[in-house]
Design brief:
There is one protein chain. The protein has 162 residues and is of the alpha+beta class. The protein contains two helices and ten strands. The strands form two sheets. The chain has a five-stranded mixed beta sheet with strand order 1-3-8-9-10, with no helix packed on it. A five-stranded mixed beta sheet has the order 2-5-4-6-7, covered by helices on one side. Helix 1 crosses helix 2. It catalyses: L-glutaminyl-[protein] + H2O = L-glutamyl-[protein] + NH4(+).
Length: 162
């Protein structure tokens, strides 16, 4: 099923209705956040790079941050006919791609991205029903609009559906 594949770049987002597949490549410390309405089969994916837009001067790209990217994605899936009360989320990524000798939390971008993602989804009252986060390896994900299945592909760790 290659006809309906929609690529989502880094610090980017997209939404689709069935039939369609949303995919993003190269989730290292970045987090891929999906929203899915099982009734309307509307889905969305945002590939965030950083937890908060508040600490960055150049924050015009809303999709780059958890605090602005997730609300943006929510707005777009609602425009396509999703119902907020039915939305569920799956998340992947947030790896620690490099090891640091110091214990400075500022370098734990992946962990901070996952934490910020969970906080924003919690505030929006959107349940996370599955996640594949952490570790020290990258991920590629594909979200299928017909089932809401999130396929997670990793080098050296195989593939799994969540």
């Amino acid at each position: 099923m290659t006809a309906g594949i929609i690529k989502v770049g880094m610090a980017d987002f997209n939404v689709t209705k069935h039939p369609g597949v949303l995919t993003t490549l190269g989730l290292g410390s970045c987090v891929g956040i999906t929203l899915y309405d099982p009734l309307t089969k509307v889905c969305g994916l945002v590939h965030i790079m950083l937890p908060s837009s508040k600490a960055i001067k150049n924050n015009s790209n809303l999709a780059k941050f958890a605090d602005t990217g997730i609300p943006l994605l929510l707005e777009e899936v609602l425009k396509l006919g999703a119902s907020k009360s039915r939305l569920v989320s799956k998340i992947a990524g947030g790896a620690q791609m490099f090891s640091f000798s110091n214990k400075n939390d500022i370098m734990k971008i992946g962990e901070r991205n996952v934490q910020a993602t969970k906080e924003v989804l919690g505030e929006l009252k959107i349940p996370i029903i599955a996640e594949d986060t952490g570790g020290n390896f990258g991920r590629t994900i594909e979200l299928y609009s017909d089932t809401g299945i999130l396929l997670v592909k990793t080098i050296g760790h195989g593939m799994k559906q969540i």
